[in-house]
């Protein structure tokens, strides 16, 4: 059953607790929500559909809110299947509904459905649609995070329907901190497109917004809304959110792990306010990416392997590069019993990223960690904190 956002805007989406991987790659132990909303006015507008996995629940929620009426419009802000794969089901239930989107919306939607778009309403930047007391204005948000994305502003209730922006992992009934799963969601889903998010934030700054309705996660109001706007400003500008150091390691037989843990002890002893750590072979890669962006300083510790670096470390660095990692300071720890190559390989991958400062020299461990290695680790820690 739907729930109230405002007197005339109702939530009609659905939680998915059965999904294990979102987008086929991100672990979602607390599930995911597929959000949809309906605006009840003289004309009725449905704001996006849901993943087909939950289309029956979505249609039932909508029917409950309609109370015998029929919807006039379906606004499609994002064509990705977790939001648009129930479009056909909705149009089959309500064949007279008018689809609303931009030119790219319909060209992309035709890749998923063989539908007749001749009666669709194509909108562009700044166009408006009056429902009665509610007037919807559309703003294009290309590459946040697909090229057809648009957001919709309702001037009556001062609500921004933000597409994938301001979303988070986790079902709506998950009792968890918004920041953590919104951060992991942002950097892994949207993070590459910081410049485009900044452009959208500038548009939003010109609007009087009291509520944000995202396509995943809770509706944002009051203190939660203010916090989300602050976090998005930091995240999209690649700023530092938390003071501290993130240590990511890839170990072959445990010796590199020992060096990474010793580095953590040294950093803590030098007054570092927070040390976060990830075993790249065992911990969630998406969380490692999240922490790499959260902190301004990072330690990469890896064993040499096949005249390069451990594959888990190479994979991690490729993830960072793909997400536009930048503006960070990095210290390197390598391990190699003969001809160490990890630091050189990691440095080469980091050089492909923007505004990355690498601390020199890298620390080289040969085999097991020894007392004689501690001074080099300490100097690197001091240089990183400086």
Word description of this protein:
There is one protein chain. With 386 residues, this protein is an alpha/beta fold. It folds into 2 domains: 3-236, Metallo-beta-lactamase, Chain A; 245-385, Rossmann fold. Helices cover 33% and strands 26% of the residues. The chain has helices at 55-66, 81-84, 87-93, 103-109, 178-190, 194-205, 222-236, 255-269, 285-294, 311-322, 342-350, 374-385, and strands at 3-4, 9-11, 14-16, 21-22, 26-27, 32-34, 37-40, 44-47, 73-75, 98-101, 121-122, 128-130, 135-140, 150-154, 159-161, 211-213, 220-221, 242-250, 275-279, 295-305, 308-309, 326-335, 354-358, 363-365. The strands form 5 sheets. It has a 7-stranded mixed beta sheet. Strands 18, 19, 20, 21, 22, 23 and 24 form a 7-stranded mixed beta sheet that branches. It has a 6-stranded mixed beta sheet with strand order 12-13-14-15-16-17. α10 runs parallel beside α11. The longest helix has 15 residues, at 222-236. The mean pLDDT is 97.
Task: Note the main attributes of this structure.
single chain, about 375 residues, alpha/beta, Metallo-beta-lactamase, Chain A, Rossmann fold, 2 domains, seven-stranded mixed sheet, 12 helices, 24 strands, about 35% helix
Whole-angstrom Rg: 24 Å
The shape is elongated
Q: How would you state the average pLDDT, rounded? A: 97
Q: What is the CATH topology assignment of the largest domain?
A: Metallo-beta-lactamase, Chain A
Order of the strands making up the biggest sheet: 1-2-7-8-9-10-11
Helix content: 25-40%
pLDDT under 50 segments (min length 5)? none
Number of helices, counting only DSSP H or I runs of 4 residues or more: 12
**Termini distance?**
55 Å
Percent strand equals 25-35%
- The CATH class of the largest domain turns out to be Alpha Beta
What summary fits the major beta sheet?
A: 7 strands, mixed
List how many beta strands DSSP finds: 24
CATH level-4 homologous superfamily of the largest domain: Ribonuclease Z/Hydroxyacylglutathione hydrolase-like
- Second rung of CATH, namely the architecture of the largest domain: 4-Layer Sandwich
Question: What number of domains?
Answer: 2
Classify the secondary structure makeup into a structural class: alpha/beta
């Amino acid at each position: 059953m739907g729930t109230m956002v405002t007197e005339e805007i109702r939530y009609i989406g659905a939680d998915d607790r059965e999904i294990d991987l979102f987008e086929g790659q991100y672990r979602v132990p607390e599930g995911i929500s597929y959000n949809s909303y309906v605006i009840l006015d003289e004309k009725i507008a449905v704001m996006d559909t849901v993943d087909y996995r939950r289309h029956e629940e979505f249609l039932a929620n909508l029917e409950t809110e309609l109370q015998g009426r029929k919807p006039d419009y379906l606004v499609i802000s994002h064509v990705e299947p977790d939001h648009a794969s129930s479009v056909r089901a909705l149009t089959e239930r309500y064949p007279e509904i008018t689809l609303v989107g931009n030119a790219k919306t319909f060209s992309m939607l035709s890749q998923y459905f063989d539908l007749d778009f001749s009666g669709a309403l194509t909108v562009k930047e700044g166009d408006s649609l009056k429902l009665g007391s509610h007037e919807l204005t559309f703003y294009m948000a290309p590459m946040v995070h697909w090229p057809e994305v648009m957001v919709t502003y309702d001037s009556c209730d001062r609500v921004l329907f933000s597409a994938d922006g301001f979303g988070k992992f986790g079902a709506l009934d998950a009792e968890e901190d918004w920041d953590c799963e919104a951060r992991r969601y942002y950097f892994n889903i949207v993070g590459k497109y910081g410049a485009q998010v900044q452009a959208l934030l500038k548009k939003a700054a010109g609007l009087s917004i009291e509520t944000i309705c995202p396509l995943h996660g809770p509706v944002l109001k009051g203190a939660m809304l203010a916090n989300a706007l602050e976090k998005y400003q930091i995240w999209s500008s690649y700023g530092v959110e938390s003071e501290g150091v993130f240590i990511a390691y890839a170990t072959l037989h445990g010796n590199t792990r020992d060096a990474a843990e010793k580095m953590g002890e040294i950093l803590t002893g030098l007054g570092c306010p927070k040390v976060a750590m990830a075993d790249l072979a065992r911990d969630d890669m998406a969380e490692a990416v999240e922490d790499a962006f959260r902190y301004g300083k990072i330690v990469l510790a890896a064993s040499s392997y096949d005249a390069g670096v451990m594959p888990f470390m190479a994979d991690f660095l490729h993830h960072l590069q793909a997400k536009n990692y930048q503006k960070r300071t990095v210290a390197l720890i390598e391990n190699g019993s003969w001809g160490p190559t990890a630091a050189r390989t990691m440095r080469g991958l980091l050089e492909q990223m923007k505004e990355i400062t690498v601390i020199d020299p890298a620390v080289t461990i040969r085999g097991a960690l020894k007392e004689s290695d501690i001074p080099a680790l300490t100097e690197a820690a001091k240089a990183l904190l400086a």
